[in-house]
Every structure is written in C-alpha cells, then in structure tokens.
Inverse folding.
C-alpha cells in the first residue's frame, strides 16, 4: 500500500508553470490528504478499539477513507449524518455507495444531529474511537508532517529558495499543519467550505504552539459542493492542459481562486492534489444538470 512519497508532475498554463504534488496517486482507498490525515491510525495498532465512530456529510471523501480504514482494521464503523437526500439514496457509485459496501453503518439523525454530534466525544466507550468531522484533530499532524518533509526534500532538489504551496481547505487541518512544518515557505489556501472566518476559527482551534497561519485567498462567491458553469470551465481547462484528473468538489473552487490571485504570488507554485476523484461521478451528475 503506497501511503507516502507521491510523485510531482508539472504543466504550463497561461504562462505559469504549476507543479502538482500527486497525493491522488497514493493508495486509492486513502487517496489524497486523507492518507496523510489517517496515517497515524494506519501505522499504530490500537488493540483496545473495535469500533470507529464519525459523522459529517453523506458524500464525504473522509467517510470513504474511514470505511476503508475500518475494513482494514476489522473494526465496526458507525457514521452519523443529518439527512440523506433521495438523490443520495439512489446513487450506485461514489463515496456513499462504496462506504456502505465496506460495511459502514449509516445513521440518520435529522433534527438531533447537531446536539448529538456535539456530545459524541463524551459518550465514547473504551472500545470506540471517534474521528471528528473532516478529521480535524491533532492526530492528523503526524501524516501532514511527512508530506512537509517530502516537499522540503523536493524543493532542495529543485534549488527553490522560495515556494508557494497551495492546498484547498475544508476543515483547514491540512493547510495549517503544512504551514507549521514548512515555516520557510508560504502556504496558501482558500475556504471551500464555509466562510473565511470559519476557516480562521478552525486554524485557531488546532494551534498549540506559536506558528504562522496559512494565507487565506478569500472565496466569497462559491458555495461548497454546488455546481457553477464558470468553475466547470476552469477545471476542464486545467484538466485538459495538465492531463490530470482533479476532484470536482474542492478543486474547481481552488483552481479558480488560485488563478485569480496569481499576481500576488511570485514564487514557484506547488499545488497539492488532495485526491477525492472517486466522488466525481456523483458531482458530475450535478454539473450535467446545470450545463444542459
Ligand atoms: C478533504 C479534502 C480537502 C480538505 O482537507 P482539510 O484538511 O479538511 O482542509 C481538500 N481537497 C480534497 C479533494 C479533499 O478530499
């Protein structure tokens, strides 16, 4: 199982060279930053645990990786969601379908969701392991530190004194720990989920020692997991030029925001490909609806 040392591709677009850290080429079960965020659990045996518990969106990339982790560890996996749409119920591919095939027990909480999940940590028994929504917790640092080492070694090889690293944010966990472990470089991100203020709060919640925060390139236009015609154009252009398949949820926003801020960035740009492409079939269906 390949969980570290992803290769780096490069391509030219609009007179810029973009380097892409291909974490999408890590093991497909844990592809992308989820392999990094879950490395701690993959490498450590937790003999007292037999049940994994988590919660969040019904098409979450993390949910699918957790279902693979549970299967590998022979743990039960309980996943709480707020509601399941009729569209989601009818899907025959994508994160939800594959997670259920891996044995995930899905529990729909409806109105009780928020209060239930807020209290979840206090209800865990000694055989249960809780991984918070999006994996926003300190254990994620372990694998992101490895990613930082790989980037530093590559930058040295390239003779880059400066580097702008761009990574899309959901919870912001990956961006924050990457900046922590690469203080000599500038990490840029954008808020794909929620507001820039939400993202800052997420950073603050994880900061334990003095460190720089990643630069937030503000997204105040695009809502998470929502199709927009101009984003489709951006990601199609990028995919055609690079010959790399990107995620259809985070990456269209991330590339659009990055391309609109290129005048602010003078260092070579390394874009972190966070995987997530197995969710593309479901997101593409939503795109088809608005484009037809
Ligand atoms: C999970 C995910 C992210 C966001 O990672 P965070 O650490 O939550 O910010 C970005 N891109 C893709 C494709 C993802 O699956």
């Amino acid at each position: 199982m390949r969980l570290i040392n992803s290769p780096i591709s490069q391509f030219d677009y609009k007179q810029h060279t973009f380097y892409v850290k291909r974490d999408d080429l890590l093991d497909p079960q844990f592809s992308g930053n989820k392999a990094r965020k879950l490395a701690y659990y993959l490498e450590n045996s937790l003999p007292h645990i037999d049940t994994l518990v988590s919660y969040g969106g019904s098409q979450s990339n993390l949910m699918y990786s957790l279902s693979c982790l549970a299967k590998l560890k022979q743990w039960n996996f309980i996943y709480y969601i707020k509601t399941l749409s009729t569209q989601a119920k009818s899907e025959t591919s994508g994160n939800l379908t594959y997670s259920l095939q891996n044995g995930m027990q899905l529990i729909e909480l409806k109105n009780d969701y928020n209060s239930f999940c807020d209290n979840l940590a206090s209800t865990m028994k000694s055989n249960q392991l809780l991984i918070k929504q999006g994996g926003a917790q300190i254990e994620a640092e372990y694998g992101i530190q490895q990613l930082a080492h790989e980037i530093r070694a590559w930058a040295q090889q390239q003779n880059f004194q400066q580097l702008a690293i761009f990574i899309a944010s959901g919870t912001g966990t990956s961006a924050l720990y990457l900046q922590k472990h690469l203080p000599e470089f500038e990490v840029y991100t954008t808020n794909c989920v929620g507001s820039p203020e939400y993202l800052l709060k997420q950073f603050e919640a994880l900061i334990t020692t003095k460190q720089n925060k990643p630069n937030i390139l503000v997204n105040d236009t695009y809502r998470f997991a929502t199709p927009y015609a101009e984003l489709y154009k951006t990601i199609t252009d990028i995919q055609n030029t690079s010959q790399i398949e990107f995620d259809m949820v985070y990456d269209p926003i991330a590339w659009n925001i990055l391309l609109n801020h290129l005048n602010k960035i003078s260092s070579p740009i390394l874009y972190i490909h966070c995987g997530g492409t197995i969710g593309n079939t479901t997101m593409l269906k939503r795109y088809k609806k608005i484009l037809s």
Notes: The mean pLDDT is 96. Strands lie at 8-13, 16-22, 51-55, 76-81, 105-108, 128-130, 164-169, 186-191, 215-216, 269-273. The pocket of pyridoxal-5'-phosphate is lined by residues 32-33, 61-62, 134, 168-175, 247, 250, 274-276 (CB under 6 Å). The radius of gyration is 19 Å.
